[in-house]
């Protein structure tokens, strides 16, 4: 083993940055050419090409193709747990849409809208919808559009309204086990999904409270003139398509109960997905038969509808385009693009790690990060920097996650601290950058320029600040036990 290591040259800092520079260039070109569709394939190709560039640097420094291939296989293997969960999450979303569980949550969430506290209500409504769907983009692209239209009719500030929509959407997205980034961050850090979600409460809850206070103050101090605004069409579309009943909410309550009892994520979500299909057959027979393409069918057609929602998601035909867009979600097939991105990113990250290029870059940064606070700050800054430079929130989670994982372990800091930092910065600041896929999507969808809304995204702005504060004060910075350190070492 010693002889094998001795033939490898350590890369120079310049060599280590070559694949990063190429990646930045390709990702910028990807966003320019494909816009918010760049994560659907172009970014994956960029990552694979840059993995090739890293391989060439590795070959020059004495690494063999076999060694780097083994590194890529191991790197992808580390993400398999998240991939399994993403697949079952896709099925869960599909069956929960079909069974009326998510539509019921949306229906009741919309009931709380009131013009006198519009900004606060907009934030909370989007938080509920995003928590139910696991998608900030779908929330903003449906309910968010309606809320911006209402704000315009009420003569309210659409920049503040957009900030409220985004704050709520990202809160729900960040805490939803259905979210792809919420699954990706713990996979990169080396912890499990629900441990990650529980640890994020330390930063997300205070941030949301501050955001809600600010939106409430702005609402009371600003103009809230009454206008004839009607959401009846939206609500009637839900009511006519689904059997909206309170007892449908027992299903998410049951999954939450399993989570509280520390049932592992995969079986808990799989049970939730299968139970959603049972709920669809029992309580949404008309919608299920229509979705299966045979309104007059019987039990076999109901099974077909349930089965289809598992692998291909659910699509409604309510006559309301915005509502149809919101409800068109789920299915394992719709998770394949995210899984493709994870595999491509892990290929790139694994080669960078195997050839010690990430080590060289991280060492340069870590030389300046001697305390826990400075390590957290370095992680946050790196993720924010990747959002600005690489223009993609997934890259802002994957690359810093691979860079700092070993250092957090070395300092006996629990991996959930790293996964929280990745989300506090990588996920939440992506929407604040105009040329990032998230910033471009939100500006185009809501019709409000990034420059007009970013300073009203109070939740997104506060989260990294609170995360850094915890790092420097030590609050909630969990340490690993000796047993956890040994277990993590064996996994890695």
User: What are the low-pLDDT stretches, counting only 5+ consecutive residues below 50?
Assistant: 1-5, 224-229
Structural class: mainly alpha
Q: How would you describe the shape? A: globular
Helix content class: over 70%
Q: Provide the residue-averaged pLDDT.
A: 85
Strand content: under 5%
Task: Give the helices and strands as they follow along the chain.
Answer: HHHHHHHHHHHHHHHHHHHHHHHHHH
Largest sheet: none
Distance between the termini: 18 Å
DSSP strand count: 0
The number of helical elements comes to 26
Q: How large is the radius of gyration? A: 23 Å
Throw out a few tags for this protein:
492 residues, mainly alpha, 26 helices, 0% strand, globular, disordered N terminus
Task: Give a verbal description of the structure.
This protein is mainly alpha-helical and about 500 residues long. The protein has a domain at about 80-335. The protein is built from 26 helices and no strands. The protein has helices at about 1-5, 15-35, 40-60, 65-80, 80-100, 100-110, 120-135, 135-155, 160-175, 180-190, 195-220, 230-240, 250-260, 265-285, 285-290, 300-310, 320-325, 335-355, 355-365, 370-390, 395-410, 415-425, 435-445, 450-455, 460-475, 480-490. Helix 7 packs parallel to helix 9, helix 11 (about 195-220) packs across helix 25 (about 460-475) and helix 20 (about 370-390) packs antiparallel against helix 25. The longest helix is centred in the middle third of the chain and has 29 residues, at about 195-220. Residues about 1-5 and about 225-230 have low confidence and may be disordered.
């Amino acid at each position: 083993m010693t002889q094998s290591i001795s033939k490898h040259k350590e890369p120079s800092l310049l060599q280590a940055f070559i694949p990063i520079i190429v990646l930045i260039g390709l990702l910028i070109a990807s966003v320019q050419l494909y816009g918010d569709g760049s994560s659907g394939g172009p970014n994956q190709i960029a990552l694979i090409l840059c993995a090739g560039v890293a391989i060439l640097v590795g070959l020059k420094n004495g690494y063999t193709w076999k060694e780097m291939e083994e590194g890529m296989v191991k790197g992808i293997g580390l993400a398999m747990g998240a991939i399994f969960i993403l697949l079952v999450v896709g099925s869960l979303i599909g069956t929960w849409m079909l069974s009326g569980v998510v539509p019921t949550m949306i229906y009741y969430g919309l009931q709380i809208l009131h013009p006198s506290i519009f900004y606060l209500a907009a934030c909370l409504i989007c938080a509920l919808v995003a928590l139910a769907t696991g998608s900030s983009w779908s929330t903003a692209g449906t309910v968010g559009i309606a809320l911006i239209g209402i704000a315009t009719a009420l003569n309210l500030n659409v920049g503040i309204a957009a900030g409220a929509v985004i704050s709520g959407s990202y809160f729900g997205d960040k805490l939803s086990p259905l979210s792809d980034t919420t699954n990706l961050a713990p996979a990169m850090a080396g912890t499990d999904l629900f441990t990650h979600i529980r640890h994020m409460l330390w930063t997300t809850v205070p941030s949301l409270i501050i955001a809600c206070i600010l939106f409430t103050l702005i609402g009371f101090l600003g103009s809230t003139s009454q206008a004839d605004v009607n959401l009846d069409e939206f609500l009637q579309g839900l009511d006519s398509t689904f059997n909206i009943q309170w007892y449908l909410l027992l299903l998410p309550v049951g999954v939450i109960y399993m989570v509280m009892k520390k049932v592992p994520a995969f079986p808990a979500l799989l049970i939730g997905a299968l139970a959603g299909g049972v709920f669809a057959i029992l309580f949404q027979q008309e919608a299920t038969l229509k979705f299966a393409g045979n309104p007059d069918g019987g039990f076999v057609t109901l099974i077909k509808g349930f089965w289809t929602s598992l692998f291909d998601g659910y699509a409604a035909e309510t006559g309301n385009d915005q509502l149809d867009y919101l409800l068109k979600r789920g299915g394992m097939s719709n998770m394949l693009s995210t899984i493709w991105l994870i595999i491509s990113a892990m290929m790139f990250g694994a080669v960078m790690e195997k050839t010690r290029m990430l080590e060289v870059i991280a060492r340069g940064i870590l030389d300046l990060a001697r305390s826990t606070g400075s390590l957290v700050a370095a992680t946050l800054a790196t993720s924010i920097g990747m959002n600005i430079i690489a223009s993609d929130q997934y890259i802002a989670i994957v690359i810093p996650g691979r860079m700092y994982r070993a250092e957090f372990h070395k300092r006996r800091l629990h991996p959930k601290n790293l996964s929280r930092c990745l989300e506090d910065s990588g996920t939440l600041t992506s929407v604040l950058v105009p040329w990032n896929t998230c910033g471009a999507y939100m500006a185009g969808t809501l019709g409000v320029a990034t420059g007009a809304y970013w300073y009203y995204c109070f939740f997104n702005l506060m989260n990294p600040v609170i995360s850094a504060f915890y790092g420097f004060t030590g609050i909630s910075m969990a340490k690993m036990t000796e047993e956890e350190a040994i277990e993590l070492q064996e996994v890695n």
